[in-house]
């Protein structure tokens, strides 16, 4: 991650996740992000830790190629926090990397810690997603993020 702090400090505690450095720099480059990536990165709920549309605590569930240069990632909700699953469709994919101790099964990546979307010199973007204990990294022309209904027997926050 370039800006998101995955190992910050808060008083005596270490390992505190802090998106503020990314959010402070986001206005400097948001206009250079492709439209879908910009909408996703600048969504007010994206980094609101207690919000139902924060990426933190989602679980990568499925990665599938939908066309020669398109990949879809599905993230499962956490019933205590989310009411929906997240589906991200990447177009113009030039790099897709999933890392979990050498494996590529995204379901083994664990919960999402945080992510960051950055512009690329070619007009596209990169999307890095830190999970416990793995990572996902995608370079693409653009992405579309959609929150979709999820089957959750429990009430979020209950």
Précis, in short:
The chain has 158 residues and is mostly beta strands. 11% of the residues lie in helices and 44% in strands.
Task: Give an overview in words.
The protein is mainly beta and 158 residues long. It has one domain (5-149). It contains two helices and ten strands; from the N terminus they run ββααββββββββ. The strands form three sheets. Strands 3-4-5-10 form a four-stranded antiparallel β-sheet. A hairpin with a 7-residue loop joins strand 4 (70-76) and strand 5. The radius of gyration is 15 Å and the shape is globular. 30% of the residues are buried.
Tell me the count of domains. Answer: 1
Rounded radius of gyration (Å): 15 Å
Total number of β-strand segments?
10
Strand order of the main beta sheet, please?
3-4-5-10
Proportion in β-strands: 35-45%
* Average pLDDT metric: 86
What are the secondary-structure elements, in order, as H or E?
EEHHEEEEEEEE
Major sheet = 4 strands, antiparallel
* Structural shape: globular
Total of DSSP H or I helical runs spanning 4+ residues: 2
Uncertain ranges: none
